[in-house]
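I'm stuck. Protein, please.
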Amino acid sequence: MTSVLPPTWHPAMWACLAASGVAYGIATSPRRFAATRSQRLRFAAALAILAVACGWPLGDLAAHVSLSAAVVQRLLVMLAVAPLVCTSLPVDLVAALTRLRTVDRVVVALGHPAVAIGVVTIVGTVTLLPEVLAWAAHSSLAGAALQAVALSLGIVLWLPVLGVAPATRRLSLVARGGYLLAASLVVTSLSFVWIFAKRPLYASFAHQHAVLALSPIVDQQLAGFVSKFGAYAPLWAVAFVLFARAGSDDGPAEPQLRWVDVQRELERAERRRSVGAKETP
């Protein structure tokens, strides 16, 4: 494999990961928005998984050789990195990041399960089209942009479940489990196309046989199965855990109200009063 796909260390990627770690450390310092040890470990785990997903060999395979590798990379970013990032942020930091009126409105809209599924399905499908993956393979910057979109989609996917944003729709345990089951069925929309296509659809991928001992059509079909079962396994596992918690006496029946939720509602009420005062002659 190394003769066709030699090791590449991607210094720009490591620089971005290091910068993200430094920025997180500064933002979550005790003088600003202090993070717990558990939250810091989650962010470190997110950076480690992101390094595996985007570095050699998986990142290079995903960019130039294999659709299956691209699917594994997407699953790691959306189903592992995204929830770790969301749960690594202190709630006061999330409140500060979403305080602007426009940002708050967007987050509230994306917190609705139907909106989240729609956005993830549509944008996720578009960003896996042959033309988009070919564009992303042309430069490191384009590839980084595509991974940023994948991470954003993962955050949107997990927003209704994690409820990290203040004063957004917070679902019950049963509703969260049902949402994850529904999401697992629709976010892999291209998988059936890959499985049943009669010819390779992605001309930008090459050397599958030399690197992976797979023909292009087999690699494409494998990507369809990986996409389906790679989404089903983690999302269904979390869903059934939520159902089990809902059925036990230990699980909370309803989401608990937090002080940041009260603050955000007061801020929204103040904005409405200000707008009403300006419109009153």
Remarks:
- The chain has 14 helices and no strands.
- The two ends are 74 Å apart (CA to CA).
- Residues 216-247 form the longest helix (32 residues).
- Residues 172 and 254 are 6 Å apart (CA to CA).
